[in-house]
Amino acid sequence: MSDVFFAESSAELPNRDQVLSLSGYDFMRGILEGRLPSAPIAQTLGFQLHAVEDGSVTFRGAPGFNQMNPVGTVHGGWYATILDSALACAVMTKVPKGSLYTTLELKVNIVRPIPDGCTVDCTGIVQHAGRSTGISIGEIRGVEDDKLYATGSTTCMIMTP
């Protein structure tokens, strides 16, 4: 496996050996518990890992002004990024020690705009995790209003270097 999958600066991210030395579940628990750093994109876009279970991951976030498009609504890329994070990390909880994953396909369905100031949970749930692929589905829901804002699905490739 090429090191192209790993950031050039290892000061803020786990290195390849750290990632491969843990099961995907243990890796995700390490992030949740603060033993491993979270992905920089989460800080940039205003969401964080909130819950990790075997086959399920939840991120919590509140899009703000910097995540708006020119017409004043949350940019579709924000929905896609938080969904990609939850869906793929749910698959990661099923990845065995010594393996990695990457997103192959992502589908996003935006149901309604997220209102200003609304905090949402984005949960991904694994439907299938095999030797070479994983599939998960998920949704974005308001924490306070429980409204459905978006749904998504992904297929991930599971790789063993």
SSE arrangement:
Layout: H1 16-20, H2 24-32, H3 40-45, E1 47-53, E2 56-61, H4 76-92, E3 100-110, E4 120-129, E5 133-142, E6 148-159
Antiparallel strand pairs: 1-2, 2-4, 3-6, 4-5, 5-6
Describe the structure.
This protein is α+β, with helices and mostly antiparallel strands. The chain is built from four helices and six strands. It has helices at residues 16-20, 24-32, 40-45, 76-92, and strands at 47-53, 56-61, 100-110, 120-129, 133-142, 148-159. The model is unreliable at 1-10 (pLDDT under 50).
Order of helices and strands: HHHEEHEEEE
- What is the overall number of helices? 4
Mean pLDDT across residues? 92
In terms of DSSP E residues, the strand content is 25-35%
Summary?
By secondary structure, this protein is an alpha+beta fold. About 25% of the residues lie in helices and about 35% in strands. The chain has a 6-stranded antiparallel β-sheet.
Features of the shown structure:
6 strands, globular, 4 helices, disordered N terminus, 161 residues, single chain, 6-stranded antiparallel beta sheet, alpha+beta
